[in-house]
Structures are given as structure tokens and as C-alpha cells.
Amino acid sequence: MKKRLNGFLTLLLVLVVQIGFAQEKTVSGTVLDEDGLPLPGVNVIVKGTSNGAQTDFDGNYDIDVEVGNVMVFSYVGFASQEITVGSSDVYNVTMAVDAGALEEVVVTGYVTQKKSDVTGSLVEVSEEKLSEYAAASVDQALQGNVAGLTVSNSSGTPGSVANIRIRGISSITAGNEPLYVIDGVPVNNGNVSASTATSTISALAAIDQSTIESITVLKDASATAQYGARGANGVILITTKGGKYGTTKFNFTSQVGFQNDAIDQPTPLTNAQRLELAAEAYVNDGLAATEAEAEDLITSSGLFAQWDEAGRPESNWQQVLSNDDALYQQYSLSASGGGEDNRFFASLGYLQQEATVIGSEFERISGSLNFSKDFNPSLKFSSNNTASHSFQDAFLERSAYFASPRTAIYFMNPLRQPYNEDGTPAQVGGALPNPLIITRDDFSENRFTRIISGNSLDWNIGGGFKAGTKFNVDFQLYNYRTYGNRNYGYGVPVSGEASQYDRTTAFYVFQNYLEYDFEINPDHVFDLKVLQEYQANRSYFLGGDGNNFADDGLFFLTSAGTPTGVTSSFSDWYMGAYLGLFQYSAFDSKFVLNLSYRKEGNSRFSRDNRWGDFYSVGGALNLHKFDFLSSAGAIDYLKLRSSYGKTGNANIGLNNYQSLFTYGVDYNGEGAQVVDTFGNEDLSWEINKTLDVGLEFGLFQNTLTGSATYFRRNSEDLLLDVPLSQTTGFGEQTQNIGELVNQGFEFELNANIVNTNDVSLSIGGNLATVENEVTKLPLDPNGIERTITTTIDRIETGHPVREYYMPTWAGVNPETGLNEYYVNGVDGETTTNFNDAEAVFQGGNAIPTVTAGMNLNFSFKGFFVNAQGYYAGGHKIYEGWHRYLNQTNVYPLFFYNGYGAMMDRWQQPGDNARYSRATTSGEPWQRHSKYLYDADFLRLRTVTIGYDIPSAAMEQIGMTSARIFIRGNNLATWVKDDNLLYDPEQDLGGETGLETPPTKAVLVGVNLTF
Amino acid sequence: MKKYIYRGLVMAFAVAISSCTTEDLEPTLAQSKSVEESVNKVDNLFSILKGIHSILSTSGYYGQDVIITNEVRSDNAFSNGGSGRYTTESQYVYNNNSDLIWNNAYEVIANTNIIINADVESLEGDVDYGRHIQGQATAIRALAHFDLLREYGQQHTGNGNLGVPIVTEYKGEDLFPARNTIDEVKAAIYSDLETAFSMMDAQYDNTNVYISKYAAKALESRVAVYFGDWSRAVSAAEEVINSGLYSIVPADNFVSSWTTDGGPNIIFELAASQVDNAGINGLAYIYQINDDGSGYGDVTATSELLGIYEASDVRLGVISTDGDFIRNVGKYPDNVNFTDNIPLIRYEEVVLNYAEALLETGGDALTELNKLPANRGASLYTEATKENIILERRKELAFEGFRYDDQLRVGMDMEARGTDGGVIEVINYPSYLFAWPIPLSEMNANSNMVQNDGY
């Protein structure tokens, strides 16, 4: 820290030195545009120096110069002008719009480049596109907008984490999450929840999406190698809004609507159906001779008897526990503007989103202030600050917890009624408490405060030199509290139970850079940048739990009679890097060469292996700039680009390289220790080598634009948790071993079919394929490959990572009504003994191999329609919990409840049924291909219909513009496999769970500027 | 121009001096310490020993799995599947997907080896006490090997002589060991137990929540009975009995002895408390259902078990017949705060070991055997027979995980039971099902490992 302070002080010192250069006289003037309107904020710089000024609101400037100096007037979008100072003291300037200067610039990481100078594969998603999908966390809006990027929500619960994969998965046990960068600075994202049982909460959900200008996704090595180790899985650059010169503009947006489950969730059995199946089970198992006799027997005792006496009512827990038409509301008010030497953007935002299940919601209030100040024309300071407080009413959804309303929909014995006759929630007995009471009287709440402050100082030294420094802090305060009440449910035996956990995380990033732009002549332009970066992440955790409360309404531990636990811990990691970037652009970007080199050190590795070297080489050929093509009128833009580079991945647990004792155990009231980590001093970076070749084009005055890209990413020295013989006392050791390959094609095509003043129509789409294969795994001393196998999947060379692997279901035998499996796993002989059936690869894993996005934009006068669809296919999904909910055995029929689909069961010899004969026994877990489904789906992600009120009308009421719209998200879904009862859009874990499913929403909104 | 180059150089200098070094990237070890550098004191050995006991008390070991998987496979109990737990074992349909105790037992062994192989002379502190701790660790290493052998060894499978790998070094040379034979493992267990007994000094044994000198001997009597090494069983049991440290808990106190820790009959038990317990993954929760509905309560007793007790037998006091199922509510009774210690070696077992060994070696078994019913409000036996002794063991040790081994070592056929307690299938002795499969994860990681037949 001290060293970095030194650096900063040195910088300041240099600045002081700079003050005091001589001047001769002061000149002034007014800068106007071609329409004669004053232009505020025009940069006026004395060529070859850092001496400069800016025009004020009225376009006026004054500047100290010497006679003979050349003043350069520059303004974004206008052609620069140079004027040599003579004897006059007044120089008025009219600036012309420069078509060439309007060439798109894109943020590519540590630098901003002209579109033609980009040699990598990246996609920019505009604010407009991002705003079309209503969600607490902005990353969910990327689905379908970026070829090769997939978003998998861990849950539909508002605020929860989405897993993003860019171009497949590159690592087996290290992380596959992309790096998030906000305004040039890496930030931490992911799940902040301290509980593995309750809903996840995404750090990104703390960011108000209406403050985001755009998101750029970097996919290839040329773009990501700049980020070294953290860029291996792609980089998501978030650029927040800034201010512009001019009077302050206010913008107000709101969206209000309601949400429901995107597709109908499985329907539970009714009590009548359940009795029918139960009676059949009795007969099948020989407990009764006829079904009538069985029904009498079943309804003679227990819950069935009570239900029978009550007149056999249905309970419909599904409806009771669903929150139909869950509210979504989002408001944001922003102001932006700027003076002569400053710009600002300020915003306030509020979002509230309910889950489609009772007792869960997300709420966020946020504010931001982006401010920049030009201390003088060559020294700029900017500070981007955002703070937010989020609240998530979480619930136990990450397994089948009985207290969860989502679990209860299927697990609650439907013979129990949700309400008493007087309308109050029934205190049903048994192991499953009534969620109506639990969600009312118990809680598990996440509170998350996040403050990000990014401050930078950029100094245009002159002579092509620029230098700057940046300091960013991402401060996260997390609080998690739970309470189980004294009167009903799990808190009863201990007279109420409560817990509280707090985590404080401070993540600092320091960057210093020096840039040198120079040209040998205008045909050979160079840009050199060196950058030094240091990141430090420190996290403190404190929490405790207790029970035995004297009265209701007491939720804090100080009132707990019996403290039952206390915990605190600290963790940290550090990263240091040196980066060199070099760009050479020849003959007006006909040829472009980009080089990057990064040396990076990470605390996750031992001292000797701490530093790694990463690089990239990228080249582009802008064919449209060659005469032979620019004269052929149809081609406006044609670029061939290619890049190759090496990136790393260090996304593994902390301190894995050391052989460690953990002291997190205790015995007999005393602290204790056990060995915890096997350790591996040789541990170092996981390496990705990515080749990317692409063609970008714009035809017929850019009415048809698109690109085609091929990529191949070889991942080597995988940071793999290599399975050890457990006789060592350890299950695995992290080693650099194993290889896998991802390769595929990506296509984008956009057509502006009609583009007149009144009517415009454009359609576009993207398509991406990715093929994943494990090519090398560790061997044991006998040369045998050490595969990694679970009950549903396996990691083995020649197959995609975690390809599904299990016995193959051969159907229900029409004669016996029993499930049968293929003995060899493929065909031929069948068996009813599950353990005799061989497990085989089932083809495909949980990652889509083909994804596609389609969009349509149409406008007529002020009316517009935007729509976007998303397709994912080639992957599979396994149904979790089927043992309890989707097998005709004792669990759904007698203990819990199951799906109505089971009515398609075998009843008598000759039946061809999907479900086996009903039985009163409880079958053990047997996972096989019956419950593995094709997960292909097509979804209408967004449809927006709106109207822009003519500005003339708005101006009459003192406003600039107004837009009203109605929007639908996920309104329609097509699912390939009819037997898949759950939403196919699932977490990457590969198994369906009892989390909240994705939602569909209908919203109305307005967007006012004044 | 020079001016700017100069300024550029100054900035480059500023960047350079603010750079970071390898030391700036050194992570903090806040909760952990290096294994190589952190065993310096006798106290460190004790701390590891406590850690080992902690692993023993987790639900993946004695906290639930070892005891429950054995009970549900015996004729004492079955899984009613209330929460879906232990039906696989109860129905004898397990496959190699479960680690069961394999990983936990070897984790225990790894930690014991750190203690055993430490150079105790070089440590700070009371070296004699250090040797005692090494003895304790040696005894636990024997216990873990015995647990592995009885669960994974081929002694009841009808063919094969494979036991489990014997591991005596932490991160030793052979990280991919093959299986040793049953006899080799047995010999290693006896050797460890003898060494342990000689290394330990009873003056350091002031609590029974740690393994102790006489616990090692008691354990030896258990292993000897399991393998039918009767004279060893006699002498080991006699050592314990003659120590005079323990006594059978009397009839009046039998039920209450389960609610109190450290009774006179406890040779070795694992500590639990309100803040340190297996919680809902522990023994009470799997046996019981509370009035408010909490509790998994999957594991319930067979009606046959209920039938073996006389009405006056105090041991009926731990069994509840309220509700749909017959339940153990008296052993490990605390289903709210889960504070009950888990007895692993009770004196009563040693007396029964002794009685059986005397019977097999021609001694006065009846006197020893009758010490049990005499203290349980039950009728005395008129004759000591193998059947009587096995029956008395079943009565005394029900729900504690002994019955499965007792049935197998006398060659009884076993019964797979469905969720209603009915017998689905009789599994004739011997059978491959009487040895767990070596976990698939082990098979995949170590090609020197030989799988048990049938899996």
C-alpha cells in the first residue's frame, strides 16, 4: 500500500512541476457548428504541448499562447481544425461534422479502439437491448444477444445468480466464470450468500441496470489476454453512463408488471388420483385382493381416514403456495449534464421483484454519481461511484428442504389441508410444516450493501505521452439472518432459533499506466501502453447462532438463552501484473497488428510458481480500405481478422498449494486440528491457448452486416482436482494435469431491410456452436486413466466434460409392469435388477452445443416493435428428486406427493406404460436414462411494443421526449422433450431442482426525458 | 519534445516504483497452518488426537453411518424410508456409488499416522505424555482398520481373502496401495493394539471421551471375538475386567445411563454437546420423530426385536411402541439439542465378549453371562450356550451397530426389508453383499485396488 501511495505522490509531484510553463499572450474566440450554434466543451490545445482549454456553454474560450503556436480544436464527431496564432487576439472557428471521425469506437479492455483496429472477437450490447429483459441482475439480459454466450440461472428467485459460460467450458474443477470489469476495473461477482441452503444472491444484482451504457463481451485471446489469468473464460466489460456537455437532462424510466412461471410446472397428483394409485399398489403387493378392498383398507386409518371422513376434499397446495402475478416494479431517475470542464451523471433507482412462490422477494435501492473534472485541458479526473442496498427474502430452495414452499408443492402430503375451516393457515403436523405459517413467522434474509468507487487521473503529457492512475474499491457488506419461530415448525423444540452472519469484503484495484502514441508518418501509426496493476481482496466473516427465546418477536442473538455457535474467519488473495500493449496500424488501418504481453502473479500459487506469462498476437486486414474493394460499391466494410494467444486460469480455492492443518474442528469443547489439504507445491496456472479467425462484413451501405468466426480453445495443464486413492486420507489433490478442447463457429447477421424516415425494419440473428472434448486426464502408476464418475455423469477422454453416464432404461415390461434396463447399457438383454445394468455414456452433457438468438426491430412513425428469441440445443438435463416425486412407489403415493404424469402407469399385462406398476415399497435411488431428457428449447425472450410521443407534442409540455411501452419476457416457450416436466432453462449442475423456475413477465413502462 | 520524453520517463519511474513483488502476493494463513511446520509440541499431538476423535464422531462415521448401516441390515431394524434414508442398505441394493466410511476411516488413519510417526523426543512438552498420545493414536488406527475390515473385507463373502490396504504413513511412498489380505490386516490390528496398550500410561486416562489404555484392550477383545481368536479374547477381556475401573450399570440406572455422559460402564465414548454434535445428521434424528413432527425417524425396529425381551426387562425402556413404528427412543435420546455422547465401548460388551470366549475355551461362561440379565430385570440363564450369548448381546447392544456383525460371524442368513418392515428377500450366508463395494471413486483413482466380487 505504501508503495502505491509513493507512486501516487510522485505523480502529483510531477504535476506540480508542470505548472509554470511560460506564456506570451491570451487569445479568445467562439466555436460554432455549421448551423451557427455554439459548441460547448470543444478542446483547444496548443499543438505539441499539454497546454489547452475548453469552450464554455456559449462556445467561448480563451487560452494563453505564443505567436506561431498551432491551436488544435477538437470535438467528438467533428473534424479537427488547426489554426496558427498570428497577431490577432480573436479566433472564431466553425467546426464541420466529420463522417470519418464518427467511426465506431469500442472499449476493448484497457484501451478504446476504432472498430477497424480491433483484431479480436467481441460483441457490444447496447443499453437498449439490455433494458428489454426485466431482471434484477443485468447479465441475464445477455442471453441471445451474444453468440456463444449462455446464461443459466441458478434459480428464478429474484436476485439470484446466473451462471455465464462463454464458448463452452474450459476447466473441469477450476472456475468457468468470466471476469467482470466495470469501467476498466475488475470487480468481484458471483454468489455472496453465506448459506448453501437458501437462495443465491448475485453481487451483480447490486448494480442498477439503468446506469449501464453498454456491455461488451470479449471472447478471444487477443481481447482477453490483457486480463491474463482472469480473462481465460471471457471478459464482460460494463461501461456505466457518463455526462455530456450541456444543460442538465433528466430521465425517468419505470417498468411495472407482473410475472408468472415461464412454463407450467408439473401438476401434482390429486388426492383422488393418489388414492387410485395407492389402492393399485396394495393389490399389486398382495395387501388386498381388489382395489375396492384396498381403498377401504387405506381409508380406514391415518390421514387417508381423516380425509375420507372430511368428504375427500382436494387441497391444491400448488395454488396456495404460488404467488400468481408476482409484482415487478423498477423506477429510475437520472440527471446528466456538464459544464465547461466537468461532466456528471447521477441516478437514483428502485427495484422490487417478488418471486412466483410465496414468501420471497428482492428489493434494491441504488444511487450513483459519475463525475469528471478537467483540472486543466490535459489533466482529467474522473470518479465513478455507485452504492446500493439490496434485500432478498430468501428461502430454502437449494435442496428439497421441507420448509421450502417450492418443495412443499410436491412433497406436502395432499391429504393435509392448507387452511383451517376459519380460514387461518392450518398447523399441519408431520415433518413438513405448513409453508403458509413458516413464510409468515420465520425468515431467512440476505442484505447486501455494495459500494464501488472508481477514481482515475489521466494526464495528457503531450508529445504523444499519456499517463494515468486508477484506484478502485469494491466494498461489500453482507448480512444474513435467519429465524425459526417458537410456536410452529422446527424452532419449537428449542423455543425459537436464530442466526446472523456478516461478511465484509474489500477489494482494491490499483492501476498505473503510461501510453505513448506516435507515428513515423501518417501511414504508420503506433500506440504503446504499459500498465501495472495490483489487486487485493480481503474478506472478514463473523457469525453466530443461538436458540431458546423468552418470547415471540425477538430475533437477535442477545435474546437467545442458549448460544449454540459462533464463527469468524478471514481470507485474502492478491494479484499483481505488468501489462504491455502494442498496436501498429498501417495505411489508415489497412493493416493492423495488436500485441499484448502480461506478466501476472497470484497468491493462489507457491512462491516459485506464482508468476505466469500471457500473451496474444492479433492481426486485421481491413479489405474495404483497399482500392480494389472500396471502388466496388457494394462492400462498405470487410475485415479479416485473426488472433492467437495464451491466457490463464487461477480460479481455484485459496491456499490449495500448501499441505495444511485446519483448525475448524473441535472436540469435547476444545479446539482441535486435522489435515485438510494434500497440497501441491508445483501448482501453477491453468493455460488456455485460443485461436480465433473471423470475417466481418458490411454490404450495400451497411444494410447487411455480419460476421463469421471460428475458434479453437485448447485448455492445458488443467487445474484439476485429481482423484486420489482415499487411503491417503484425501479425496483429491489439485494438480496441473489434463487437457480439453472447445471449438466452434459463430455467425452473426443483421439486415436493415427498410430504413426510411417513417419506417424501419431490421432483422438479425446469431448462431453459435461449441464442441467440447476432454483430451487428456491423469493416469495412475499402472497407466490407467483416472476418470471421475458420479451417479449421472463421467469425465473421460474422448467425451465432453461430464457427459451423462448411467444405465439405460429399456422401458416398462408390458407383461410384468416392472422397469427394465439394458444389461450392456445399449441394447439386447434386459434386467429388472438395476445393479446388473451397465452404466454407459448417454451422449451430451448439460451445456448446449448449439445456441442461437434472433431479433426483429420494426418501427413505423413513432410506433415500434422489438422482439428477441433464443434457442439452445444439443444438451440434456437430468431430473432430480424423481425417486420421491416421479416413481410409482411409496414416496408419492403414501408419504409425499408426486406428479400427475404418473397416471400413465402399468395396470395390467399388455399395458404399454411409461411408469411401472404401483408399489407400496420405497425404491432406493436408481438414476437411469428414463429421467434424462433432451433439453432443447426455443423461447421468445422479449417482445416490446411501444410508441414514441412526437417531440413537438412533448416540448409543449416542457419535455424533450417520451416513450411508452408494453413488454413481455419469456411469453412463449417450446420444449423438445414432452416428458420433461420442468423448465429446460436450468442451472449448469445438470439436474433439475426445486428452485424457483424462470418467469415470464408482462410489463408496462414509460421513459421520459426532460 | 525532450520535455515530454523526460516527463514520460518520470512517469515510467513512478509506475516502476509502485510495482509489487512476490512478497506482496503472499496469502495469509488465518485459519490453517502448514503441516510440515506445525507439529512442534506435545500439545500439537493432543490437538490432532482431538481432531481424530472429532472425525470419528461425524455422521459419516460413528455419528450415524457405521452404526445405522449395520443396524438396518440386521434383524433388529429396517428403514421405513420416511425421509428416504438408508433404504438402500436396508434392502441390500447398494452399489459402488457410495463412499460410506471408506474415506472417513482413512482420513482418521492419515491423522493418526502424523502422530505415530512424529519424533516425540524432539517435541516441546512432556515427552511421556507424548508417548501416551502416540499410543492412543495407534489404538485408533487399529479401530479404523478394524472398521474398514469388517465392512469391506471378504470374510463373509464366501470367497476371497482380501481385506483392506494397511496404511501406516502419512503421505507415504505408496499412494496407490493394493489390498492386504484379511490375515495381514488382522495381524496389523492386533499388533497396533498391543503396541498401543504398552505405550499408554493409565495415569493420563482421566476421561472416557478419549481412547485409553483399557479401551485398547477392550477393543482387542472385540476384534478377537469377531475373528474367533478365543484365548486372545479371554486374556484381553480379563485385563479390562481386572483393571477394576468399570462396572455394569445396574437395572435402575439403565435407561437413565443413556441420558448422562461418562457412566461407570463407559470405557470409551465420543463427546457431543449442544454446540458440537452431528445434529439432524446424527443418531437421534434418524431413530426418532418428535411430537412436533421433526426428526427423520427412518430407522425403526422390527417387531421381532421387540419380541425377545421379557416384560420385566428394563431394556424395553428404550423402546417406544407409540405410533406407527417401533422406535428406539432411549439410546441417544436427545433429539432436540443432540447432546448425548456416543458410547463406542461399554463394559457390558466386554463382559459378553468374555462370556463367549470362556464358552469357546471351556471356562465358566454362565456366571459372566448372567451378570447381564441380573442387572436388567430379566430372568437368569440356566445354561450358557452360543445362542444364549448371541441373544443376550442382541438384547443388550441393540441399536448400537453390533447385531449385523454378530449375525454374520455365526453364519446367519440375512433379510432385506422393505419400507413396511416386511422381508423382501432372504440373503443366504455367505454372500457378496456382506462386504461393501470398494467405492467407485477409489476404483477410478487407483487401479491397484481390486473390487469385491459382485459389484
From TrEMBL, chain A:
<dbReference type="InterPro" id="IPR037066">
    <property type="entry name" value="Plug_dom_sf"/>
</dbReference>
<feature type="domain" description="TonB-dependent receptor plug">
    <location>
        <begin position="115"/>
        <end position="235"/>
    </location>
</feature>
<dbReference type="InterPro" id="IPR012910">
    <property type="entry name" value="Plug_dom"/>
</dbReference>
<feature type="signal peptide">
    <location>
        <begin position="1"/>
        <end position="22"/>
    </location>
</feature>
<keyword id="KW-0998">Cell outer membrane</keyword>
<dbReference type="InterPro" id="IPR008969">
    <property type="entry name" value="CarboxyPept-like_regulatory"/>
</dbReference>
<keyword id="KW-0472">Membrane</keyword>
<dbReference type="InterPro" id="IPR036942">
    <property type="entry name" value="Beta-barrel_TonB_sf"/>
</dbReference>
<keyword id="KW-0732">Signal</keyword>
<dbReference type="Pfam" id="PF07715">
    <property type="entry name" value="Plug"/>
</dbReference>
<feature type="domain" description="TonB-dependent receptor-like beta-barrel">
    <location>
        <begin position="415"/>
        <end position="779"/>
    </location>
</feature>
<dbReference type="InterPro" id="IPR023997">
    <property type="entry name" value="TonB-dep_OMP_SusC/RagA_CS"/>
</dbReference>
<dbReference type="Pfam" id="PF00593">
    <property type="entry name" value="TonB_dep_Rec_b-barrel"/>
</dbReference>
<keyword id="KW-0813">Transport</keyword>
<comment type="similarity">
    <text>Belongs to the TonB-dependent receptor family.</text>
</comment>
<keyword id="KW-0798">TonB box</keyword>
<keyword id="KW-0675">Receptor</keyword>
<keyword id="KW-1134">Transmembrane beta strand</keyword>
<keyword id="KW-0812">Transmembrane</keyword>
<dbReference type="InterPro" id="IPR023996">
    <property type="entry name" value="TonB-dep_OMP_SusC/RagA"/>
</dbReference>
<dbReference type="Pfam" id="PF13715">
    <property type="entry name" value="CarbopepD_reg_2"/>
</dbReference>
<dbReference type="InterPro" id="IPR000531">
    <property type="entry name" value="Beta-barrel_TonB"/>
</dbReference>
UniProtKB/TrEMBL annotation, chain B:
<keyword id="KW-0472">Membrane</keyword>
<dbReference type="InterPro" id="IPR011990">
    <property type="entry name" value="TPR-like_helical_dom_sf"/>
</dbReference>
<comment type="similarity">
    <text>Belongs to the SusD family.</text>
</comment>
<keyword id="KW-0732">Signal</keyword>
<dbReference type="Pfam" id="PF07980">
    <property type="entry name" value="SusD_RagB"/>
</dbReference>
<dbReference type="InterPro" id="IPR012944">
    <property type="entry name" value="SusD_RagB_dom"/>
</dbReference>
<dbReference type="Pfam" id="PF14322">
    <property type="entry name" value="SusD-like_3"/>
</dbReference>
<feature type="domain" description="RagB/SusD">
    <location>
        <begin position="335"/>
        <end position="455"/>
    </location>
</feature>
<feature type="domain" description="SusD-like N-terminal">
    <location>
        <begin position="64"/>
        <end position="223"/>
    </location>
</feature>
<protein>
    <submittedName>
        <fullName>RagB/SusD family nutrient uptake outer membrane protein</fullName>
    </submittedName>
</protein>
<keyword id="KW-0998">Cell outer membrane</keyword>
<dbReference type="InterPro" id="IPR033985">
    <property type="entry name" value="SusD-like_N"/>
</dbReference>
